[in-house]
Amino acid sequence: MSLLKKIFTAIRGGAREVGEAIVDVNSVRILEQEIQDADEHLNKAKQDLTSVMAKEMQANREMERYKKDIEQYEGYAMQALEKGDETLAIEIAEKIAGLEAELSTHSETKTTFSSHATRLRELVKKTERQLGEYKRQLVMVKTTESVQKATSTITDNFTSSNSKLLSATESLERIKKKQQDFDDRMKAAETLEQETSGASLEEKMRNSGIGGQAHSASSVLSRLKSQKNN
Predict the structure, then answer these.
(1) HSE (side-chain half, CA atoms, 13 Å) at 93
(2) How does pLDDT run across 189-224, given as a tens digit for each residue?
(3) How far is CA 165 from the centre of its chain?
(4) What pLDDT was estimated at residue 13?
């Protein structure tokens, strides 16, 4: 029996770990949904608040109406007393008493709605501030998550392609070496051609002032001046 309890405990522990892992993976999505749900509840609360405020205004209008009626019937009662009609004055006074009872009821109703509306206003403002803060934090969390994912992708790609980069470097070096070998062969061929044709020797002699001079305008002019002086 003890062994079975341990097995069940292990299963519950594993399920809890799996649940926590799922929550961790979807934590940003869960937070975003929770904020959205709270936003919807806040909008519903605002609608309820609007309804309560409307009932408060209605109760206030009823109070004003009853106050005017009471004031009007008090005037009628005074007129009846002035005329000495006690019976009529009593009937009017009973009407006034009924109106005052109605006024008292509407006054209590208005007070209840006013108190409820005030409390709802405070809750709405507090919730709006909290939601605003959570929304700002959500933006930061999502931005941080995006940056972390980008960093992880870059790191993973660099690690997985490190051998490819090394291979590409080796290929580039081989291409450069091949091109250098081609240039070297071309230069060697040009040097061999010059040596075989004697061009190289002629150039060396000309640079040393040995052998025939190349015909040029300056050499021709020098020769003509020499002939003129003779």
Answers:
(1) 9
(2) 777 666 666 555 666 666 666 655 555 666 667 777
(3) 34
(4) 53
Cα separation of 75 and 69, whole Å?
10
Residue 218 buriedness (CB in 10 A; 0-12 / 13-18 / 19+): exposed
- The C-alpha angle with vertex 121 and arms to 117 and 122, in degrees rounded to 5, equals 120
pLDDT for the residue 91:
92
**What's the CA gap between 47 and 29, in Å, rounded?**
27
- b (16+ CB within 10 A) / e for 61-84: ebbeebeebbeebeebbeebeeee
DSSP category for residue 21: H
Give the separation between CA 83 and CA 96, rounded to whole angstroms: 19
Distance between CA atoms of residues 85 and 77, nearest Å: 9
Regions of the chain short of the pLDDT cut 70: 1-26, 152-169, 192-220, 229-230
What's residue 29's pLDDT?
79
Say how far apart CA 132 and CA 126 lie, in whole Å. 10
